[in-house]
Amino acid sequence: MSRRQVLHQVTFSTVFSLLALFAITWSGTAHAQTYTHGVADYFAAPTEPVYPSQGVLNHIASGYVTPGSRPFDDASMNRWLATTFTTLRRNGNICGATLQMTVANLDYATDNDAMGMMFLDPAGAPLTGGWSESLTNLGIPVGSTGTINLNLASLPGGVNLIPTLNSLGYVDVFVQDDSAVDFITLVVTPCPSDVYTKDNAKDIGYLPTLNPTWMSPDIRVCWTPNCVGHQNPASGYMNHIYVTLRNNGPVAPVGSVATGTLQIYYSAAGLSAIWPYDWIYIGGSYVPSLAPGATLEVTLPWASVPVPGNYSLLTRWESARDPMTVPELPGSSTLYNVRWNNNISWKDVVVVGL
Prior knowledge:
Layout: H1 18-21, E1 22-25, E2 33-38, H2 54-63, E3 81-85, E4 94-104, E5 114-118, E6 131-134, E7 145-151, H3 162-168, E8 171-176, E9 180-190, E10 195-196, E11 219-222, E12 239-247, E13 258-267, E14 274-275, E15 280-290, E16 295-302, E17 309-318, E18 332-333, H4 334-340, E19 344-351
Antiparallel strand pairs: 1-2, 2-9, 3-8, 4-7, 4-9, 5-6, 5-8, 10-12, 11-12, 12-16, 13-15, 13-17, 14-18, 17-19
């Protein structure tokens, strides 16, 4: 690569403030959070550090001639830039995300430099599919400098990374391998509300839920209305199911009023139950308003209680303003769905005969 555009001489300094280099802007639970790596200074010296995960570093070292990551503003050749944005779900479920990056495409020899997003484990192996595209196809041809703006819910090619951001809570961003990057800004928009039901006594809404996930204290059954505690469902009689809803999940009670529908099901398939095929619908209840930080116990009648035996109850909170963290795919494990969605809870029960 004989032609190079030198942006500035690469120097290093320990003088700059980390607050200026790694900025996080907070504006409330229901508002966007802005994460910026690097400084928007149009490649001015000195360079600024990147924050790659160990997984990214292992991934680069295992498949590329030059290990490690270049810093921001570095215009040298044959080296990736990689940085990792973490703890993205600290304010609850993510409903939207955008990424902005200013880059100088300096790949004069082969014109194959690209940028993308990955989700790597600590060893450097992909946990799930990511996304990438060439800088030229993103509107930054060789020899030019420009700003890329991406909607992570609708990336070129029709890729939506929001479910993965929700399930993992981080993203590895890379640019390879001859181009310089000025800064990268990720803006995450939390869902307006985050309603959850406890999977066990210690559950406070964080994901994934640790075992046991089939003993929700927020689900209880009564033979007669307004009983105290939980009773084993009685076969052949009208029973009453009570479910406690909590807004807002693992975040401070600063969000928005929640609106949605509580759906309840039962199954005899146990922990191997498959969604939705092993579940029988009991009923639903629309909740027009649940204030931030509030709890609400919703009750539904259960008339068709099955014959005595071991069963499971499943509750699902459905809300356009508070979607499932991980989509419930047909044929998926219900246990997995419960673990990765605080909108869903499970309680094993024993139906008795009176």
